[in-house]
Amino acid sequence: MQISFNRPFNKGNAIKYIQETLSLQQLGGNGKFTKKSQLYFNQYFSSKTLLTTSGTSALEMAALLSNINPGDEVIIPSFTFVSTANAFLLRGAKIVFADVNADYPNLSVSGIEELITDRTKVIVPVHYAGVACNMDEISKLANKHNLIIIEDAAHSLLSSYKGKPLGCFGRFSALSFHETKNINSGEGGLLVVNTKEDYQRAEIIWEKGTTRNAFLRGEIKKYEWVDIGSSFLPSEINAALLYSQIEIIDTIQKRRIEIWHKYFNELKILQEKGKVLLPQIPEYATVNGHLFFLECESGKVRDNLISYLNKKGIQAVFHYLPLHSSPFFSKKYHGKELKNTIKFSEQIIRLPLYFGLKKDEQDYIIKTIKNFF
Ligand SMILES: Cc1ncc(COP(=O)(O)O)c(C=O)c1O
After folding, report:
1. In the listed set 196, 213, 246, which residue is the last one of a domain according to the structure?
2. 142 vs 254: CA distance, rounded Å
3. Whole-prediction pTM
4. Is 194 close to ligand 1, i.e. is its CB under 6 Å away?
5. Residue 128, ligand 1, Cβ within 6 A
6. What is the total count of domains within the chain?
7. Residue 150's closest CA among 128, 175, 122?
8. Boundaries of domain holding 110
9. CA of 190 to the centre of ligand 1 (A)
10. What is the largest distance, in Å, between two alpha-carbon atoms of the chain?
């Protein structure tokens, strides 16, 4: 049996809606399907949202909106995707890497306070695998030191912290609709703007620094260049694909969460035997079925397990090489050893998890992992 790591979702009204955008001859951004998608997210977050070309560009918008200047310091976990760092580096920020917790690879709040200086401007919690960071503690710290919270909620669609949606805690939050995510538009993302005052500027930055949106709404006679900006809005083809999945988002979530729980329940026996650790979900967090990982007892066991599964036709992968020790950053890093970051980076294995994963395929993956041990 050959089981790929990911199979992008391809059901629903995707073809119909893409065909419709072609017929409407409305392929640029901010058309019917962008508006419909944003309306869904505005209601879900009770905030203003903008579709973007990627989660990366949503983070870049958040960095622009936070007025990051050269030398400003931004605290992020080292255990994350490069875009969490690049978005701020592009604005000249100094990236300050923090460690993650020993029991779950989310930002470790206890280590953050000593990283804060009078140049610290932003803190970026990344909710790994859609499992919430401890937002009460992070918010308390941010308030105490007057820091902006930007949530990297790339994995976090429809997940929550103490019942409140992830994406609502930061002044800005970024979600991703890359093809590996729960719903996808090939490449795509969302910026959640949680304060009214920021929205007007967000809309301008989204449209290359112009007042084009106000013009299209008939509020002004001509549109002008009024601010810095870029082309952050996706084409209607991407938005049509995304909207076709928003329509059936509950069905998609249900199946992904079901797959997550099946891995968890059936691999529990390996945890009981001391072979692996399963994800430890804090009681304040939820599972949104974005990704499933196991923690092996050592890097060697993890690498052997990946090779074994690959040989058996199962594409399982490692996740996140630490950013602080990357070829690009290692010479610039002068902080502490980030022990938990290194541990998770060496010991985590990600298993295939997507809507189209068939029951017999998941059974085969579980059986093969058990055979390995
Ligand atoms: C934590 C995190 N942040 C940001 C991104 C960037 O999202 P995108 O690939 O949509 O640019 C990713 C990508 O998967 C991610 O894992």
Report:
1. 246
2. 34
3. 0.97
4. no
5. no
6. 2
7. 122
8. 14-246
9. 11
10. 70
